[in-house]
Design brief:
By secondary structure, the protein is of the alpha+beta class. 28% of the residues lie in helices and 27% in strands. This is Pyridine nucleotide-disulfide oxidoreductase.
């Protein structure tokens, strides 16, 4: 798109699930002029990478913002647009009973999975539907800044556009841009929560629960949990953040040949208090430390080496007990204990030992632990109402605002913000 109007009733920044949820709700229920702005060629984040969807409260829905009844209602609306094909969940009672004995909870969640190789097709189809509904879509378009006194924004090209309402859903990766805008328009916020953890990679035969439950949601003591399990054709990737790399997991659709590997994150939620109050900065410091120790990459360590208290070396990734190749080839063999804070490592290792009792085989010597996986989940703006309004005509939604943790809840937060605009018009 090249030509912009000088004014829109509603502007939505970010074409992730929160932005799409808001755009569809507004477009289908009003005659507003709507502009959807995305700085990349295609939406990034969870919708693009793997596209795993959870349809059971409370997964993805922070308790401080959501009640079950409303979440369930909006999830039905999300289904109408994403048309999920639910994964089969078989009998997992034996795992649930083992977990209970260890003070561990396994949540039974309705899930759907698209796969990284199929997600672009889904995203493009959603954008095309919005265009048919009359939404103006500006891809590869950067919002430079909001004006502190007027309802207008400036693009990186220098163009100025005014609006009646603006919905910001830029996602977690643009937390610093979001903080700059909140500072400009006078919105108070907190940034004191971050998830720090590892990504575990192992042979599927050593984690057979994935045969019965696609993405097991397992909650351990000390605020540790599993997150984003991938199987079938599963790979670990390295993602670039500002100043460091974080690992993440992907899986392809069932059309792709399986590689018989599984990966999942083990994350510990950290809530910071004074004097260190920025979760984003804390995560960045840890990520930068790994960059120093690894020579500019991420670290991997075999469980066999970790248990022996010795670092992994390139030559220890051999064909003896270590009988599969790491899917992330540019990870550097090293020692997690040199770079991860002891308290975090202790709680994650304790959780892994419990998991090995629930699903024996997890801690096979060949299992690989990659570090860091850092989820700087959100700024937490001070909202003036329950619909994520931060000042009259301004809304901040999605994972980057702490209103959600995942695709379906982010989409739901977009619906809620849009409903507020519709009710006021």
């Amino acid at each position: 798109m090249e030509n912009f109007n000088i004014h829109y009733n509603s502007i939505i920044v970010g074409s992730g699930p929160s932005g799409l949820g808001a755009a569809f709700k507004l477009a289908e229920n009003s005659n507003q002029s709507i502009l959807l702005i995305e700085k990349k060629k295609i939406s990034s984040g969870g919708l693009r990478n793997d596209c795993k969807q959870n349809y059971t409260y409370p997964v993805g829905f922070p308790f401080e913002h959501w009640e079950k009844e409303e979440a369930d209602e909006l999830l039905e609306e999300v289904k109408q647009h994403l048309n999920p094909k639910m994964e089969t969940r078989l009998d997992i009672e034996k795992y649930i009973q083992r977990a209970k004995k260890l003070d561990v909870d396994i949540l039974a969640i309705d899930q759907a999975h698209v796969g990284t190789d199929k997600s672009s097709e889904l995203i493009n189809s959603l954008i095309d539907k919005l265009k048919v509904l009359g939404v103006s879509v500006a891809l590869e378009t950067q919002v430079e800044q909001l004006d502190e006194n007027k309802k207008e924004l400036t693009l990186a090209t220098g163009e100025i556009i005014t609006f009646d309402n603006i919905i910001l859903g830029p996602g977690r990766a643009d937390y610093d841009w979001m903080q700059e805008q909140m500072d400009r328009i006078g919105v108070e916020y907190k940034d004191n929560i971050v998830d720090i953890g590892i990504r575990v990679e192992l042979k599927e035969e050593n984690y057979p629960i994935v045969k019965e439950y696609y993405d097991p949601k397992i909650l351990f003591p000390n605020k540790v949990r599993t997150f984003c399990t991938n199987s079938g054709c599963a790979h670990i990737v390295r993602e670039k953040y500002k100043g460091y790399y974080s690992v993440n997991g992907h899986s392809m659709s069932k059309d792709k040949k399986p590689n018989k590997l599984v990966n999942f994150a083990m994350l510990k939620t950290i809530r910071l208090t004074e004097p260190v109050v920025s979760g984003q900065q804390f995560g960045k410091i840890l990520g930068e430390m790994v960059m120093q120790l690894s020579g500019g990459s991420v670290i991997m360590q075999r469980v066999g080496d970790f248990r022996l208290g010795q670092r992994s070396k390139k030559e220890t990734f051999n064909n003896d007990l270590y009988d599969f190749k790491p899917s992330l080839s540019n990870a550097v063999a090293g020692d997690l204990s040199l770079s991860m804070p002891a308290k975090i490592l202790r709680d994650i290792w304790s959780a892994l030992k419990k998991l090995d009792s629930i699903v024996p085989g997890v801690l096979h010597p060949s299992t690989i632990l990659y570090y860091p996986e850092i989820k700087t989940y959100s700024n937490r703006p001070q909202f003036i109402n329950k619909n994520f309004c931060v000042k009259e005509g301004y809304y901040i939604i999605g994972d980057g605002a702490g209103t959600s943790r995942g695709i379906t809840a982010a989409w739901s937060s977009g619906i809620r913000a849009a409903n507020d605009i519709l009710n006021k018009s």
